[in-house]
Amino acid sequence: MFAPTLARTASQFRSNNPLTVDEIARYAPSVLASEAHESRGERYAYIPTIDVLDGLRKEGFVPYAVAQTRVKDLTKREHTKHLVRMRHESQIGSLQRGGIVGAEEIPEIILVNSHDGTSSFQLMSGMFRLVCSNGLIAGNIQDDIRIRHTGNIIGDVIEGSYQVLDSLKEITERVDHYKGINLSAPEQMLLANAAIDLRWDRDEVTQQAPVDAMSLIRPRRNADIKPDLWTAFNRIQEHIIKGGVRARMTNGRRTTTRAVQGVNENVKLNKALWALADGFAALKQAN
To answer: Same domain for 162 and 198?
Structure first.
């Protein structure tokens, strides 16, 4: 079997096995909040995220990753925005030593919520790429479902999860489409430069970014030495989201880029990158 942990920071955790309640509590305690934040009024319908997860688990949805927003106000740590990535039992392949049979990517459903009023229940589709242990959040499709903290929340979230599950077929088809599109070296550089502008500000005088395009398209492993759009997109996304890329600050000092750990920033950036890849696919198809 795989080692139990693929990625772990103070606010993020992913496992190759379904997460336990103890693991969720350790890395995303706001999922288990016992009450709403004191700032919420009487009209706020408080439903613990863990209760929703329990309801989803009965329907075959299992959590594999959690993340939580870091906050300066520690009184909000137990209520802040959090993210849970789940897989449905119908989407999970058979596990073997060294990998998942017949799959390079695993579709996932992403649940975002908070107990301090900063977020409604939000459902999105995603894709987990095995080779780099990296999670993508799909953008530019109609599966971003939001459910307010009123009414039958658990039932509405379960219904919304099945809607997102139905849309995962479309995500898989898009991935297959990307794999069939080859990019030249200049096109890969163009894609990387566009991604840089989504992530970093350029110097007002020199118009230079902290990193260059070549750093983002450089493969980290042999499996990524391919010219297709899907592989190039994943190389760029992994470098941006995970960080660790050599960079140069405006004062000339060398450094490395930081990982994207905030829930809001992760979701926004992932969606923007996916929309960028969609745009490239459309341009290539038109030519």
So the answer is: no
Considering the domain architecture, whether residues 137 and 228 belong to the same structural domain is answered as no
Instruction: Say which residues have a Cβ less than 8 Å from residue 19's Cβ, sequence separation at least 6.
Output: 13, 63, 64, 65, 66
194 and 166 within one domain: no
Q: Which of 157, 8, 177, 17 is nearest to 87 (CA)?
A: 17
Residue 242 within a domain: yes
pLDDT tens track for 108-130: 888 888 877 666 778 888 888 76
Length of the chain (residues): 287
56-77 burial: b if 16+ Cβ within 10 Å, else e: beeebbbbbbbbbbebeeeebb
Query: CB burial class (10 A; 0-12, 13-18, 19+) of residue 256?
Result: exposed
Q: What string of H, E and C letters represents the secondary structure of 77-90?
A: CCCCCEEEEEEECC
Cα Rg, the chain, nearest whole Å: 19
User: What digits encode the pLDDT tens for the residues 221-262?
Assistant: 888 889 999 999 999 999 998 889 988 877 778 989 988 878
Assess if residue 176 is contained within a domain.
Answer: no
For the beta carbon of residue 9, count every other beta carbon within 10 angstroms.
11
Q: What is the pLDDT of residues 22-80, one digit of tens each?
A: 999 888 888 887 776 566 656 656 677 888 888 888 888 899 999 888 766 666 667 78
